[in-house]
Amino acid sequence: MSVNSVSGRDEATEREALSWLDDPFEHFGWSTTRIHSVPREELAAVQLAGINIKLEQRRGQIKVLEKLADAQGITSCADLDAAAPLLLPHNVYKSYPVSLLSKQRFDKLTDWLARLTPHDLSQVDPSGCTSIDEWLTRIQSDTPLDVATSSGSSGTLSFYPKSKRDYWLTTQGMRVQLVQRFGTEPTEADLEEKIHVVLPMHRDGHALAGRTGQYLKHVFGKGDEDFYHTCFDFKASTDLMWLAARVRAAAAKGDMSQVDATPQLLARRAEWEEQQRKMPDQMRAFIERIIDELSGERVFAMGTTTLFLPLAMRGAEQGARAAFAPGSLVSGGGGAKGIVLPDNYEQIICDFFGVERFEQTYGMTEMNSLSRMCEHGRYHLMPWVVPYLLDLENGTPLPRTGVRTGRAAFLDLTHDGTWGGIVTGDLATIDWDGHCACGRTSIAIERSVQRLSELQGGDDKITCAAQPAAQAEAMDFLLNLEG
Questions:
Q1: Are 211 and 320 found together in one domain?
Q2: Full-model pTM
Q3: Is there a contact between 71 and 441 (Cβ–Cβ < 8 Å)?
Q4: Domain that holds residue 408
Q5: Does the residue 184 lie in any domain?
Q6: In this structure, are 376 and 351 located in the same domain?
Q7: Rounded to an integer, what distance in angstroms lies between the CA atom of residue 211 and that of residue 236?
Q8: Dihedral sign computed on CA atoms, order 323, 324, 328, 334
Q9: How far, in Å, CA of 128 to CA of 280, rounded?
Q10: Tens of pLDDT along 32-71?
């Protein structure tokens, strides 16, 4: 059997795939060792079966996927690469007309979102919503969705139809991967011990970082409010995030008159500016307080590398150091954000927080599963995530052999809120034939992930594997919101 194709239907393999899709952690006994020990040949076979099961199920539920598949005559996949033309560019989740937000046309935004998810949004009544937060909260209360928003760094917010089940899978995966040690079976404490969650961010919100905390509180802290610690004890405002995005976009163009927000929201600009001004000092004070209050306690602190490093450096200068209990975790990600990190930045963070290692992960809003970096500097993918490397010029999948570098794309088979196939803006490298010295058999991404927009001077023209005419037809359908 080749690594890239599986002929015929294998009922045993299909049952295995269904089990992965239904409850992957239960299937693998909540063991990170079992998750990352699937033989490569078996992995390819189950992934292919999962793709076909998912495609058969979702093409009749997600209208954009149906349009894309029909336009290319794709009803099933004979090999893994055959699904590449069905992967959606990540910017599709910000493809709505921006004017809909400034005009508060949440009815049209609901119609747009409904074409990207299998969940029925026809019963959502957005009339009366006077803010983005109200609209998102209504969807959250009336449907299985818990829509995740981006920070809008490009000037436009993205709205990703993540479901509540998706959030649960994400946070459960974090506990399984970060708390356990590969090579040993999970203990009762690994699965059930309450661990303090420390987030130097808002207590809630609709952006991924803030919303994830509410699920981490249950997965790590077992729902105990006393085990949930955040810097800002209020819900982050998506409306202020959008205002900030529009201000940045207008400033970049040199014309602040182009901030197309409602007068009510523009009146809150001073509120946002004051929050930004106070934020650095509040974060430092929060970390200092947590170090004191949670001394001797087991802690899981999650943030970004660029947040933790300045705090650790400042603490080192003042002779401060945390004394958390053994087994505490500090996890960061988010890239360097254009900042040059010192060579020993990981050690600086570890010394300050008193942990053995700085846990680095690779992931994104559009994936349920974070990939943890192993001891040898590679991000290991969960077996239910099918990776692709696409040619930068034509978007076709590069061969799944040898060492290859290309645009990263993924199909997360566990996704509930949407199709799960995404083309990213990341340049990544995979050694398809190699096996990591850490002992994991899972496919791994080298740590040298880079943003293509940064490499290309701030502009990333995404080229997907889909036929251009088919992609154009699908996008036209998505954006046809008249009537």
A1: yes
A2: 0.92
A3: no
A4: 1-87+368-483
A5: no
A6: no
A7: 9
A8: negative
A9: 36
A10: 999 999 999 999 999 999 999 999 999 999 999 999 999 9
